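Run: sequence + alpha-L-arabinofuranose -> complex structure.
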Amino acid sequence: MNKFATVIMAAAAATLLVTGCSKSDSSKIKVGFSQVGAESDWRKASTESIKGEAEKRASIELTFSDAQQKQENQIKAIRNFISKGVDVISFSPVVATGFEDVLKEAKEAEIPVVLFDRAVDVSEDGLYVSFIGSDFVEEGRRAGRWVVKNVGENANVAELVGTVGSAPAIDRKKGFEEIIANYPGIKIIKSQSGDFTRAKGKEVMESFLKSPEADQIQVLFAHNDDMALGAIQAIEEAGKKPGKDIIIISIDGVKTMFEQILAGNANCTVECNPLIGAQLFDVVEQIHAGKSVPSRIPSVEGVYDNVGGVNVGTDREPVVTKKITQEIVDSRKY
Ligand code: AHR
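>> structure
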């Protein structure tokens, strides 16, 4: 509702203007970015988008830090950015909670923070200026609607959950469950974290396929493509046909998943756009110039499958799936 509300308050704006005047004439805008890690193809594309865009812009000096999927590393990196006195801090939080203290430290140091890709759960307003990224709850809903429309109102689902406590894992689960709650015949019979990686996705799927419920699994809902790709291997090794014996739906839309859908080994991927580096530095430049920015900047995303023409949005806001073709695969950048 307040999607485009501006958040820089008068005092903060004044501070930014002062900061902008004192530094912009003589130096670049110093940006400290803390990335989650390199856990997935999606994440690698996200990192390339950030670094590539920073290189293109003469105005930006980027310090990039990889948290290796550990929150403690991320907090250390942010504290380091604060002590170096960067102009803007941005990060993609490993998990949603536990950042309140360090965000307060950034605020005290008068360094604006832009959340990138993932949100945080904080009890106080004004700890960050803007959040650029996807609507993970809606991604989960789209996956749920696809299952209802393509598998039907009765299905046993195995779920590969993302990193425990991360915003995409919490929100995608929430969105998916919100939709299937209307269909008592659709049940999640197995659910476990695969930490967003291919290796863990495979490992957890192997354990699902060895469990007493193995033969009941009809659908796999993976919170990202990498875990689904690991699961495809596990399903094949167990002598089943991925995409047929077990319908596979995941989230991200990476090229390798497109290839698997085209080959018939998976069925649908809900896009989550990692190429938002340009949006980040647009916002950074606006903040540095003392301009107000929207508190929430959503990414634009589609849904791809082996059917085409399925509305996985709502009647009021339709989102129609695109059927994967070789041309779509070839044009995919990540
Ligand atoms: O935050 C976005 C999620 O993080 C992507 O879905 C996943 O692949 C990544 O690791």
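>> summary
The pocket of alpha-L-arabinofuranose is lined by residues 39-40, 42-43, 117-118, 168, 196, 224, 226, 251-252, 272 (CB under 6 Å). Residues 41-56 form the longest helix (16 residues).
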